[in-house]
């Protein structure tokens, strides 16, 4: 899983209060109607899946600042597995949690994701208030401002995983591939995606033609290439470089599948999973 090489350089309210309620199993199922159980096919969660949910919830809530970057990433991916199985634990989504973190946030994960409404990080990874430092922008592009936000998350907030999360059928990538001119500031957004498109274009003319014709599988190739490119841009940050060198963080590229809900890891930098840092 490689993100490719990079050249070090610096890239140019108050929540609505609800009735306080104790943490309980009922609390963990308020926001979602459970999907069909993986155990018996019924629409109601089985005893086994409910027990599994309790176990997942306890595990998520026991993750502390002492966890390694690898453990934090594993915890995040397990959240996606719960979401996929229709067994989301909905941790940290009660009023008690809101009050607990009102003075200081301490999320362990930062995500640079697309603004697309179909990719809400907390839901996809089954997280809650104060768990994920999320930066969202169309095309999940690592502009200087977005990278600066991630630098803040690493330096001051203390996150241990920085993830660039792209997704299939990305409208920003599709717009960039069209080659059309756009009004307002949209062109500046598209400019950030041109490198990924150029990389795929350089594969061969037939593939480029398929992409421009809207071939979904080829579209996904551009999305993946874009994630890897934005990871490289993040890697140019001297702040992130230093945190990677000290093994304090993992920098990860991933893609969310709109059809399946699954998150696929594309590349990892730092820690024991380092590939050509
Ligand atoms: Zn998108």
TrEMBL record:
Taxonomically, which superkingdom?
Eukaryota
In the record, biological process GO terms are: carbon utilization
Q: Where is the composition biased (Polar residues)?
A: 1-10
| Cofactor binding note from Swiss-Prot or TrEMBL | Binds 1 zinc ion per subunit.
Which residues hold Zn(2+)?
A: 114, 116, 167, 170
Q: Cofactor(s) for this protein?
A: Zn(2+)
SMART domains noted in UniProt: Pro_CA (SM00947)
Keywords of the record, alphabetical order, are: Lyase, Metal-binding, Zinc
An example of a GO molecular function for this protein is: zinc ion binding
| Similarity comment text for this entry | Belongs to the beta-class carbonic anhydrase family.
The protein here is known as: Carbonic anhydrase
């Amino acid at each position: 899983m490689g993100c490719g090489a990079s050249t070090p350089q610096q890239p140019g309210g108050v929540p609505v209060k609800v009735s306080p309620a104790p943490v309980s199993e009922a609390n963990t199922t308020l926001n979602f109607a459970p999907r069909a159980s993986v155990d018996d096919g019924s629409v109601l969660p089985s005893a086994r899946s409910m027990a599994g949910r309790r176990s997942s919830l306890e595990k998520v809530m026991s993750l502390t600042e002492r966890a390694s970057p690898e453990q934090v990433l594993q915890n995040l991916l397990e959240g996606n597995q719960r979401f996929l199985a229709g067994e989301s634990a909905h941790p940290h989504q009660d009023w008690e949690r809101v009050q607990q973190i009102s003075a200081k946030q301490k999320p362990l994960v930062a995500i640079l994701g697309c603004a697309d409404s179909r990719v809400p990080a907390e839901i996809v990874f089954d997280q809650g208030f104060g768990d994920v430092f999320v930066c969202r922008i169309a095309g999940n592009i690592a502009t200087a401002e977005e990278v600066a936000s991630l630098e803040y998350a690493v330096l001051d907030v203390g996150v241990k995983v920085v993830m660039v999360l792209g997704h299939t059928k990305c409208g920003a990538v599709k717009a960039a591939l069209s080659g059309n001119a756009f009004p307002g500031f949209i062109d500046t957004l598209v400019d950030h995606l041109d490198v990924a498109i150029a990389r795929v274009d350089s594969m061969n003319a037939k593939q480029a033609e398929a992409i421009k014709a809207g071939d979904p599988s080829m579209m996904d190739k551009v999305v993946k290439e874009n994630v890897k490119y934005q990871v490289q841009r993040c890697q140019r940050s001297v702040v992130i470089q230093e945190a990677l060198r000290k093994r304090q963080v993992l920098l990860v590229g991933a893609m969310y599948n709109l059809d399946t809900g699954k998150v696929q890891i594309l590349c990892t930098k730092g820690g024991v999973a380092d590939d050509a840092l």
